[in-house]
Structures are given as C-alpha cells and as structure tokens.
Amino acid sequence: MVGDYELPEGLLTLDGPVVRPAPGTLPLRGDLAHIALADRYLVAHYVVPQLYRIGAADAALKLTASADARTVATLPAGSSFEVLDHAGAWSWGCVGPDGPTGYVPTAQLAEPGL
C-alpha cells in the first residue's frame, strides 16, 4: 500500500488500444506514470510518488511548467500533493492517482513528510 491506495498486483497485461486521457486528468505522460496506473497504461517508467504538502499559500496546478499555462485546479494550502518528477523550478505530480495532475512551482511545496 502506498498512501491511501493499493499497488497493482499479479500479472499486468494490456489488451488492445487504450484511449489516452485528457491532459491534466490522470498522472500519465509519455515517459512516466503513477505506479497505480501500471495495470491500465504502458509507459517506460512507473513512479511511486513522493508525498509533499502545499506550503503556506494556495497553489495553482498548471497544465504545463509555465506561469502562463492554463490552471487545472487550485490546491489549498496544507493539502497533499504527490510529486512524480522535479524539473527545474517546477514539480509534476497529482492530487492522487485519479488526478487532477499538473505542475506546481517547487518553491510552493513543503518538505516531504511535513
């Protein structure tokens, strides 16, 4: 168990074409995905997320790593955020394995486990 969800068990298989979810929904990119999606989507890498918290102020969850990008959701201060990738000043992650998903400025995240 990781967080509040179970990891996939047993033999993982994919049958036939899979419809790609809309951007900003599931924690899935072309190169990696949340480990909880391993039984539904095939990617090069699956990541067990690092749990962070949104810092003292609400954070805008952005579709891309840009302040000008569309806001997917507003994450309340102190809420949980599962980080799957750090890229410069931005961290890509999700609220949970069912989303929403996007980028948050790394400076707006509290240290892991706090």
UniProtKB/TrEMBL annotation:
Pfam family, one: SH3_16
Name used for this protein in its record: Bacterial dipeptidyl-peptidase SH3 domain-containing protein
Domain Bacterial dipeptidyl-peptidase SH3, residue spans: 68-109
UniProt cross-references to InterPro entries, sorted A to Z: SH3_16 (IPR041382)
Species assigned in the record: Allopontixanthobacter sediminis
